[in-house]
Write a structure and sequence with these properties.
This protein is mostly helical. The chain has a domain of 84 residues. 83% of the residues lie in helices and 0% in strands. This is Ancillary SecYEG translocon subunit.
Amino acid sequence: MAYDLEEQEKLDAIKAWWARYGTLVVTLAAAVALAWGGWWGWKAYQAHRANQAMGYFEALEDAARLGGADSAVRIKTAAATLREEYPATGYATRGALVAAQALQAQKDDAGAREQLEWLAGQGKNPSMQAVARLRLAGMMLDQKQYDAALAQLNNPPPAFAALYADRRGDILAAQGKREEARAAWQSAIDGLGTTNPLTQVVQLKLDALSGA
């Protein structure tokens, strides 16, 4: 009999606890299940978006590699789709860089510059942004837009400081500012170090400037 009473007390305690907290437990369990399902749903959606973006990027690469009469149109269309519909993916920035290089090779400087200008404004991807600014400065140098080119090289990221200094030297030399060009190239050499193959190239430019 004592055993039955003890068991009954336990059952009564469980019932009382469930009556008080049962709704909360069920609600929390449902919330956890929904959150878990939502997280996996979001992951699946992101994977789907990434696969779509990859398809456009591969189409862009194919158009750049194979060329053809309408390749510039296909390159621009794929790059625009990546920028507008998949801006959060890495394919958008990579696509802009590939498109710029391909369009410049096709002598479509305006199209290439548009790609680089967009990429130069993407602060969320500092490495790609830095590459775009460097290439954009080179294009502006070729077009003799010296002040605009130099403006692209302001506040260089530390990892790109030497490369930016080299490009700055190119621009200053084109302007006839020999001493400023010399200082920029020397800064590039100091930043690159003796083991970097590019150091020899910069040194040749510095030697040529001294010889001139």
